[in-house]
Amino acid sequence: MQKHYDVDGHDFSIAGEASSNFKSYLKKLGIAPEVIRRVAIAMYEAEINTIIHGGGGICDAEVSKDRITITFRDHGPGIKDIDLAMQEGYSTASDQIREMGFGAGMGLPNIKKYTDGMNIDSKVGVGTTVELIINI
């Protein structure tokens, strides 16, 4: 079962809408609450990163028998140093974004913490793809 979401990079009032929608979908499927909690946290972090750093993009989520795979793609500036970006507290968010309560540098570390697998493919000047894998 697959779901597709467009992630608007210009409207923070709907930030988190895709993750909230997918969380409701997982509840209807009868997925275990602990799995749903992990998915919701990781997906929200990835969605916010797509908005803040990628200027928006798309999200494709798939539920299979044994796992949930969520893929975010953007056409933003890309991540120059993935190892550095994975460090807690590191952020390239603007002061304006930080004033809104985002950009604490915990997005990628939290995604890694709440998933069973995370893959990042990023090319500077082209964009970033982040894949989240959560076992059911």
Automatic annotation (TrEMBL):
<keyword id="KW-0723">Serine/threonine-protein kinase</keyword>
<keyword id="KW-0418">Kinase</keyword>
<dbReference type="GO" id="GO:0004674">
    <property type="term" value="F:protein serine/threonine kinase activity"/>
</dbReference>
<dbReference type="InterPro" id="IPR036890">
    <property type="entry name" value="HATPase_C_sf"/>
</dbReference>
<dbReference type="InterPro" id="IPR003594">
    <property type="entry name" value="HATPase_dom"/>
</dbReference>
<keyword id="KW-0808">Transferase</keyword>
<feature type="domain" description="Histidine kinase/HSP90-like ATPase">
    <location>
        <begin position="39"/>
        <end position="134"/>
    </location>
</feature>
<protein>
    <submittedName>
        <fullName>Putative anti-sigma regulatory factor, serine/threonine protein kinase</fullName>
    </submittedName>
</protein>
<dbReference type="Pfam" id="PF02518">
    <property type="entry name" value="HATPase_c"/>
</dbReference>
